[in-house]
Design goal:
Number of helices: 13
CATH architecture of the domain at 185-405: 3-Layer(aba) Sandwich
Strand order of the largest sheet: 4-3-2-1-5-6-7
Helix content: 25-40%
Structural class: alpha/beta
Distance between the termini: 66 Å
Length: 412
C-alpha cells in the first residue's frame, strides 16, 4: 500500500498534493465545526466542510480563531474601499449630478440682469447700453437628453407636504440609529426637507394596498436583485443563488448604475457582464429588489441622492410595469465605523433611507428595511456580524434572506 501511495505521488504529484491538502483542510474544518464554524451551513453534497472552511477564510475566521471573538480585523465580502472615509472630503457638492452625464443649464440671459437698470438710467447712458441685446430664449433640450428625465407618472400638482403614512405592515418602518453628532452636514439635507409629495402617479398613495406576508424560496424564482457589493455578497451566501437572478457590481452607485456593465447571474449559472437596461428589456420579472446606497455616502447630499434614486425607480417601472418594486434601505455600519467617520455614518444612512421610503405607494412600490435583523438595539450593525463594519460575514447573509421571506407581497 505504501509503495502504491509513493508511486501515486511520483506519477501525478500536483494532483496528489491537491487531494492531500483538501483532506487536511476538510479535517481542520470538521475539527472546528462545533466552535468557530458552528454558524456556517454544512451539507454533505452542496456545502461540505471544505466549503465552510473557505467561507470562513473569506471572512477572516480561521480554524484556530477564538469562537467568542467579537471583532475580526480582516476581510469580509467584496469591499467598496479599505478606508471608509477615503475620498469623502474630496468630493465637490456638484459631483453627483455631473456623474449623470448632464448639467442643468440656466436659460441664457438669466442671472445677469440685476444692476443693469441703474447703469443705464438717465440721458448719459452709452449707445452700447441703449442697444443692449434682449435675453435669449431658453435652449431646447439636447437631442440625447435622458429619456427617463421625462417621468410620465409624475404628479402635475404635488402638495409640497409630507404624504400620509401607509397602513401598518404595508411598508416597513425605517430603522433608526444613534447619532454621534459627527456626520458632515454637507452630506445631509435639512431635517424638514419634503421629498415625495405626489398625490397621483407612480409615487402617489392611492388605490388598493397590500400587506406583507411570509413566503418560501419559490417566491424568488421570478425576482431580480439589483445592487452593489453587498448584493454580490448576498448572491453568493444568502442561499438563493440557485433560485433567483442577481445584477450587481462592486462600488456601483445610483449615479453610475445605468452607465456600467454589472455582473448578471441567472439561477445556478456563472456571471456575465450586462447593462441594467438591457437585462430589464430582455426578461420580465415579477419582483425587483433594489439595494444600493453605501457608496454614495461621500457624495452630497440626501436630496440629490433621492432625486437620482427616484429616476432609477421610474426607469425600472417603465421597463417592467408589472413588477413589484422593493426599495431596500441601505444597511447600517457598525458603531466603530459610524463613530469614527463623518462620512460612513448611520446618521446619513438613516436620513437617506427615510427619503427613499417616501417613494413607497403600498400598491407596486414597497420599502424594506433589514437593519432590524442585523443591528443592535441602537441601530448599529452588530460588530460580530462583520469584519469591516460595512459588509456582513458570509454566514450572516442568511439573516437578510430570512427577513425577505417574511416581508413579501402577494397580489392576488
Amino acid at each position: 500500500m505504501l509503495e502504491r501511495i509513493k508511486e501515486f505521488f511520483r506519477r501525478i504529484p500536483l494532483l496528489a498534493i491537491l487531494v492531500l491538502t483538501s483532506c487536511l483542510l476538510s479535517l481542520a474544518a470538521f475539527a472546528a465545526g462545533t466552535s468557530v464554524y458552528a454558524s456556517y451551513p454544512v451539507d454533505p453534497v452542496r456545502e461540505p466542510w471544505l466549503t465552510a472552511l473557505m467561507e470562513g477564510l473569506h471572512d477572516g475566521v480561521f480554524p484556530w480563531s477564538r469562537p467568542d471573538a467579537e471583532e475580526a480585523e480582516t476581510g469580509t465580502g467584496p469591499e467598496e474601499t479599505s478606508d471608509p472615509a477615503a475620498g469623502a472630503a474630496e468630493e465637490e457638492p456638484e459631483a453627483a449630478p455631473a456623474e449623470d452625464g448632464k448639467e442643468d443649464e440656466a436659460p441664457a440671459g438669466d442671472g445677469e440682469q440685476t444692476g443693469g437698470e441703474e447703469e443705464t438710467e438717465g440721458p448719459e447712458a452709452s449707445e452700447e447700453e441703449e442697444t443692449e441685446t434682449p435675453p435669449a430664449e431658453p435652449e431646447e433640450p439636447a437631442g440625447d437628453a435622458d429619456p427617463y428625465d421625462m417621468d410620465p407618472d409624475v404628479d402635475p400638482s404635488p402638495t409640497g407636504k409630507p404624504l400620509p403614512a401607509l397602513p401598518e405592515n404595508v411598508s416597513a418602518p425605517v430603522v433608526g440609529a444613534e447619532d454621534f453628532g459627527n456626520a458632515d452636514p454637507i452630506f445631509l439635507s435639512p431635517e424638514d426637507t419634503v421629498y415625495n409629495s405626489d398625490t397621483k402617479g407612480l409615487f402617489g398613495r392611492t388605490g388598493t394596498t397590500y400587506s406583507f406576508r411570509s413566503v418560501d424560496d419559490s417566491y424568488f424564482e421570478t425576482a431580480l436583485f439589483i445592487g452593489d457589493s453587498r448584493t454580490t455578497g448576498f448572491a453568493e451566501y444568502g442561499g438563493l443563488r440557485d433560485r433567483t437572478s442577481f445584477l450587481s457590481r462592486d462600488s456601483v452607485t445610483v449615479y453610475t448604475l445605468l452607465d456600467h456593465k454589472l455582473q448578471f447571474r441567472r439561477p445556478g449559472s456563472r456571471a456575465e457582464e450586462r447593462y441594467l437596461e438591457d437585462v430589464l428589456r430582455e426578461t420580465p420579472y415579477d419582483k425587483i429588489y433594489i439595494a444600493i446606497g453605501v457608496n454614495e455616502l461621500g457624495i452630497p447630499d440626501t436630496r440629490l441622492y433621492y432625486e437620482k434614486y427616484r429616476k432609477i425607480v421610474t426607469m425600472i417601472h417603465q421597463l417592467q410595469p408589472e413588477a413589484i418594486l422593493y426599495l431596500q434601505g441601505s444597511m447600517h455600519v457598525s458603531r466603530k465605523v459610524a463613530k469614527g467617520s463623518d462620512t460612513y455614518n448611520n446618521t446619513i444612512i438613516v436620513q437617506r433611507n427615510k427619503a427613499i421610503a417616501t417613494l413607497a405607494n403600498g400598491r407596486s412600490v414597497f420599502y424594506l428595511d433589514m437593519n432590524g435583523a442585523v443591528c443592535d438595539d441602537k441601530g448599529n450593525l452588530i460588530e460580530s456580524y462583520s469584519g469591516d463594519g460595512i459588509h456582513l460575514f458570509a454566514s450572516k447573509y442568511g439573516l437578510w434572506a430570512d427577513y425577505l421571506r417574511s416581508h413579501a407581497i402577494v397580489r392576488e
